[in-house]
Design a protein that fits this description.
Layout lengths: L2 E5 L9 E7 L6 E2 L4 E6 L4 E5 L4 E6 L5 E4 L3 E6 L2 H4 L17 H4 L34 H7 L3 H10 L17 H14 L33 H4 L19 H16 L2 E9 L1 H18 L6 H14 L5 E4 L2 E4 L5 E3 L1 E2 L5 E2 L2 E2 L7 H16 L13 E4 L19 E5 L3 E8 L5 E16 L5 H16 L7
Parallel strand pairs: 12-16, 16-17
Antiparallel strand pairs: 1-8, 2-4, 2-7, 3-6, 4-5, 6-8, 9-19, 10-11, 12-15, 13-14, 17-19, 18-19
Helix pairs in contact: 9-10, 9-11
Length: about 475
Amino acid sequence: MARIDIVMPQMGESIAEGTLSRWLKKPGDAVKRDEAIFEISTDKVDAEIPSPAAGILVEIIVAEGVTVPVQAIVARLETDVNAAVGAADAPAALPSAGATPALLEEPTIAHVAAAPVVSAAPIPPLPPRPPEPAVAGNSYEDRLRTRSSPLVRKIAAEHGVEIAGINGSGIAGRVTKRDIIAHLESGPAAALPVVEMQPLAAPIPAPEPALVPAVLPYSISMPVAEVSHESQSAQIWPGDVVEPFTKIRRLTSDHMAQARRVAAHVTSFFEIDLTRVARIRAGMRKDFEEQNGQKLTFLPFIVQAVITQLKRHPMMNAAVNGQELILRKQYNIGIAVALDPTGLIVPVVKRADDLSLGGLTKSINDLARRARSKSLKPDEVTQATFTITNPGVFGSLMGTPIIPVGTTAILGLGAIEKRPKVITGPDGEDTIAIRTCAYFSISFDHKVVDGADADRFMADLKRSLETLPEPGV
């Protein structure tokens, strides 16, 4: 009898939990190795999770709609088909979508064993542990016990805050980064004494303001009330249709709000003449598509030019770590993909500098296709060092995209269209010509990237695209 635990996978470096959105198999179903058995949603990806082995699904532990930590057991698989007969007939008690999983209420297992479970007997709960300080280790039990992530505990330690004294808004009362930042912002105001004014009394001097750090580890560029969807409210009028946020919309909202808070956003615009790129693309398009079986668009040309300039301007391919700047030597390009009916995901082309024009085309098209079919792997939506978004495919002329957390810049591509432009000929005479142009925008984190550096990057990108050499030259 070889029973295997199926766990909630780690869907990104900073992801601590995931929501099981839909079961694709039911108890008693036979599954093949790598066959999709359930769907999950996190703030990084909405994906189907494959089975780790072939066998019979004998037990479902987590119901649809329930959010659990990574590495939590969600189901069990029996690889011995004979032993599985009858085991799958017993109904499994599933927690309701609105209930808190017992795993969150009383953590009994710190980690899921890597080896298959030999016995089906229930594992007795561990004795309760005494309370520990807020700043503890990074194990799963520690995270549950302190109701916070390592990032929150680090912020708390730097500011001398007791996490136990903060009301958390996360699952099982966990304190989130938004909670502790709001606590830090409200702390000095809450500490001011309330003084009742008496008539004919001598003026009472105002209390001195409490000292706070000049720069918090995570700067706030907007009031929390303006960026948190949880605190927003609007009056509902007769005839309105009220729809709750979908899982991906709620997670996207949280991620975008966080991105606005941690980066000092500035956006610069350049108009780039893509006539030369269009001519080169038209000349090689037929042979390229016959050889590669892929449609050749403008995007691979732009990605190649971007990578060349990222190597010349390393600040644009960097990440912030507290008071340090990490200059990335990998060139992992995130490509934003719009999902139907709504939603957005950013799959990542890893080590894009190692790929040819054909390789980039295949990789971009493959990631986009699998993003829309919810078949991306966890590591395909992480570790981006620079991002490109292309709202121009919908007709948008320009925009100010939000910088993804963990990077310092994002490039926005406007609609590519023909425009009349003034061109100076070899003889010095000005003429009006029809040119293929687009507006490019670069949003960058002004905490670490100066405007001059961002504009130099864009000027060099403009020059490289407008003087692109012919193939083979």
